[in-house]
Design brief:
323 residues; 6-stranded mixed sheet; Rossmann fold; alpha/beta; 3 domains; globular; two-stranded antiparallel sheet; Arc Repressor Mutant, subunit A
Length: 323
């Protein structure tokens, strides 16, 4: 989806001393490099530091950002990559810049330990947030006004987004691309990044078997591929379990270990993804979309779609339908 009319969203990414190259690269790829490769013009990314001076990464090489903290005030999205350590306090100048950006209506994003910076700025008070599971208890103790969830990949409340560690930063950024540019653009960027199109924010950080290894897991993965080929079928846990020769309890346990979700949650996500694609790429009416994506009624589709994405199917189509 090429943006020839909308003004690009201004994305500011903060660089700082001892920044992780991985965590800096994720938003740069998701909002700059990959969009350019598919002709998506929805974002304009700027990397900034406190004084637009060189910073040294955690691996020892230097970065020289062109922009300073004043960039945050004029940005639609402000991203704080993973902070070096909970014990490193952000400067008052940075805290003030973040607070001002929030007052200007910016979406604030704390990737992994970036949540500590947002917490220090007071913008997470009384909010549900997440961070790397190993630091969830520490974050909660340091900032008792927060409600820290240790089992989510990412979480958005109002104009604040926080994510879990490492790979969850990719999921979080892809979700934001999806939010601003639609599922087709997000899926294409995910393919360029050679990663899954979308893991939902409420998926657990603790997926015991992320890659199928045992014969049972391979059979389950094959069954999931079969479901993906026709998400409209009325699947039941008992029938799916019997296909693999498992009890209902064993099947649901293996499924959650492999995906981080229940069977029902996973199938619902696949149906909603298909719904997004149909809304963006076809002219089918809402009733046809609901039938083709496996929902029993338009009412059911609208309920789940609004609950998941915060807008109605019609509003999604109006925003993201391809020309």
């Amino acid at each position: 989806m090429v943006n020839s009319e909308k003004k690009p969203k201004q994305v500011a990414v903060l660089a700082f001393e001892h920044i992780s190259p991985f965590h800096l690269s994720v938003p740069c790829i998701a909002f700059c490099d990959a969009p350019k490769m598919i002709g998506l013009l929805d974002f304009e990314l700027k990397v900034c530091s406190e004084e637009a001076l060189a910073v040294t990464s955690s691996t020892g090489f230097q970065l020289v950002p062109q922009y300073n903290l004043a960039t945050l005030a004029n940005s639609d999205i402000v991203i704080i990559p993973s902070w070096p350590s909970p014990d490193v306090k952000p400067s008052q100048k940075l805290i003030s810049a973040i607070q001002h950006a929030r007052q200007q209506g910016a979406l604030l994003v704390g990737l992994c330990l970036g949540a500590y910076v947002l917490a220090a700025a007071g913008v997470l008070d009384n909010m549900i947030v997440t961070t790397h599971w190993a630091y969830a208890e520490d974050l909660q103790q340091r900032y008792p006004r927060l409600h820290v969830k240790s089992d989510s990949l990412y979480h958005q409340q109002d104009n604040v987004v926080t994510s879990a560690g490492t790979a969850a930063a990719i999921d979080c950024c892809l979700q934001l691309v999806r939010q601003y540019s639609g599922s087709e653009a997000s899926n294409r960027i995910a393919r360029l990044m050679v990663t899954a199109p979308q893991r939902t924010g409420n998926q657990s950080q603790f997926i015991e078997l992320p890659v199928p290894g045992k014969v049972t897991d391979l059979k389950l993965a094959e069954l999931m591929d079969e479901i993906l080929s026709d998400v409209t079928a009325p699947y039941t846990i008992n029938v799916l379990a019997s296909r693999l020769g498992m009890s209902r309890r064993t099947f649901t346990r293996h499924f959650r270990a492999l995906t981080g979700q229940s069977v029902g949650q996973w199938i619902l996500v696949q149906r909603l993804r298909l719904c997004q694609s149909l809304l963006e790429q076809t002219t089918h009416n809402i009733e046809q979309v609901s039938q083709l994506s496996g929902f029993q009624s338009v009412v059911s589709l609208r309920h789940h779609f609004k609950q998941k994405f915060g807008v109605s199917p019609s509003e999604w189509r109006k925003t993201f339908q391809l020309n």
